[in-house]
Amino acid sequence: MKYLLYNYKVRLFFLVLFVALFPIMSEAQQAQKVKRVNPNIPYTFSSKSSAYKYLDGGTVVPALSKDDAVSGKLPIGFPFQLGCDFYSDFYASSNGTLSFNDPFVSMNNGSYILSMSRYANLTLLAPLWDNLNGDRGIFSYKTTGTAPNQVFIAEWKNWKWFYNATSAVISFQVKLYEGSNRIEYIYNQEPSPNTSGSASIGIFNANTLNAEAKQLWINNTSESPVASTSITENINIRPASGQVYRFTRNDTDASCDGVVYYGQTIINPNGGTNANDGLKIILSGAANMQIIRNGKGQIHKPDNYLPYGTTNPYNVTGPGAHGVALAVGNSYFTGGELVPVYGEDQRLEVVSSTQQGAIESTPGHFVNEIKLAAVKNRLTYYLTVKYVYNLPENNFYIDYTVTIPEGNTEEVKLAHGWDTFLQGSDSGPGFVLGTAPSLVVGVKREPSFEAFEFVKGIPWSGYFSANYGSLNTDLGWDTTFKNTIDPDPTTDNGIGISMNFGKIPGSFTSSNKLVFACEAGDVAPALANKGGICQGMVLDLNSLIISPTPPGSVIVWKDSKDEVVADPTTVITEGTYKAYYHSVKYDCDSPVATTVVKQDTSCGICYKPGVVTGTQTGSPLAVISTLDRKNHPAVNTRSGALILESKEKGFVISRIASPETAIAVPVEGMLVYDTTSNCLKLYNGIIWNCIEQTCVDND
């Protein structure tokens, strides 16, 4: 069955009312799960002929004698092992399936059904999976024999095959053998002729990471069909009466010891609430993500924090094109809704992720790896996405590692993208900066900022920053973005990058950086009010700034004409001046601070020339001298509280870097030498200022 998904993003005015009536589920991390590694437990297939014997004395389930019906939980009678897990109960459906973990009733057989996130834990026996009907038929089950050699039998007796069958077409049974854990399907043709069907016959186990052990399907209903991991979806000839299809489990229980973690993980789970605690990065099992900064989601839909990241690993934040897409030739494997246009895609298989408790390797340093897989032509391709985050940064590093198996002959490509949100209006101009391969591509609406930045390794084959609705179409058949940039500030933007890993077997990595804030910051510079331009002097506008400059940024001043001040250290013109921080690398700015500068004729730090004549009077309270004097009042008496004398020694007052922050409780009149500003500073009771010599007071 083929189908198309159409993506719409609707923002309706009655959203508030809707939320009031149907409150959004509060954010809660789903617990990670574990899967068996299972490197050595595939099933082997064989077929034979036998006499069909109707089940006698079984427990009848009347509910299945109708269309699209599924039973409740029913007992097997003994622990039956499928793969590495034991099951004591089962569910049966009228559409020719028997499942263990969860009820399953889908009439639409096919690989796309098995790839759906809702069936992430599905264990399925499919003796004849199709659109069947149990009308006038009987489903019953029974456990025979004695332990440890019991046999469980489930029978679909006198079943109709497909909707246009007028009476019974076929009967069939599933047999489970205690001890050996062997599975058998056996069939019996009923009087009505075969009808046109489109069935699948085989076994499926989503709880294993071994592609060879996950599934085994037969390709026809002959006496000797071929079994493989590729599902056949169009079987339309019923098996012969007495035909037996057998699936035998290889007895290697030692390989069941290994487990891996998979499902939702969160980087910096206590962060993302304010400007100082960094990003909170929520990841579904299939590498879909939501970034929380200052309490807001950065990816549309912002209020979706991927609460079903374990049970629904393919869940994305909203209806736009999100996620990673891996292409092997013309086959596409997706983790979300990003997919090459018109591509008939399959889901990437979720293999593993870092255990939640081990993500923070050292305080404030987080490393998380999510491993995904795709199987084509019995070859397994792996995609490992590694996230590295350091608190409290507004960016993190992401490595895409693709492992191409021996025997591959097709190009392997990867794309990643999402619908940006920008903390508010959800619109902004696209941009690209730098020279290939060292590019930055993204969208900004200052101070909001979202971008991909290439670091090293496999370079980008293309990039995109334009209307989010065109992400899939721009990616195209060749899984390569077309370097599309839309600079319109009203664009409802999405961003993405693509990479070509080639055909050669091996592991290859593209290292990148995801940026979620302009490095110039989202806070305007803090300015001090120092009065104005003193008479006959110049004003250093930079001396008004009392906040630190963010790393990687510079301060920019503009005058009342909105022109950049060429030399802000020698301003002589009064007027309104604006200041902001600017990131050269990302070409983005902080918010703007404004100050009004006026001419000030009353200011100026004046000094008097030293007194070199006159009569000395009074006695000092203290004399510190390196001269040849005697400490006696009668010797060279002078007036003063403290006298320092020397012809070769200097007086050094306290030297402190940035007294504004170093001195917790300053006192009015305090003097220090600021080793950061390289000046003598005075605290006037409000702020610290450098003491600058201006005029000579001769009065």
Count of discrete domains: 4
Give the biggest beta sheet. 9 strands, antiparallel
Taking all Cα atoms into account, the compactness measure Rg is 38 Å
Cα separation of the termini: 100 Å
> What structural category characterises the helix and strand content?
mainly beta
Number of helices, counting only DSSP H or I runs of 4 residues or more: 5
Q: Extract low-pLDDT stretches.
A: 1-27
Beta-strand content: 35-45%
* Helix fraction bin: under 10%
| C-alpha geometry | elongated
Average pLDDT: 87
**Annotation, overall tally of beta strands:** 49
Would you write up a description of this structure?
- This protein is 3% helix and 39% strand.
- The protein is elongated.
- The model is unreliable at 1-27 (pLDDT under 50).
- It has 699 residues and is mainly beta.
- The protein folds into four domains: 38-257, no CATH class; 319-515, Glycoside hydrolase, family 65, N-terminal domain (Beta-galactosidase, Chain A, domain 5), CATH 2.70.98; 533-600, Sandwich (Immunoglobulin-like), CATH 2.60.40; 623-690, no CATH class.
Quick recap:
This protein is mainly beta and about 700 residues long. Helix content is about 5%, strand content about 40%.
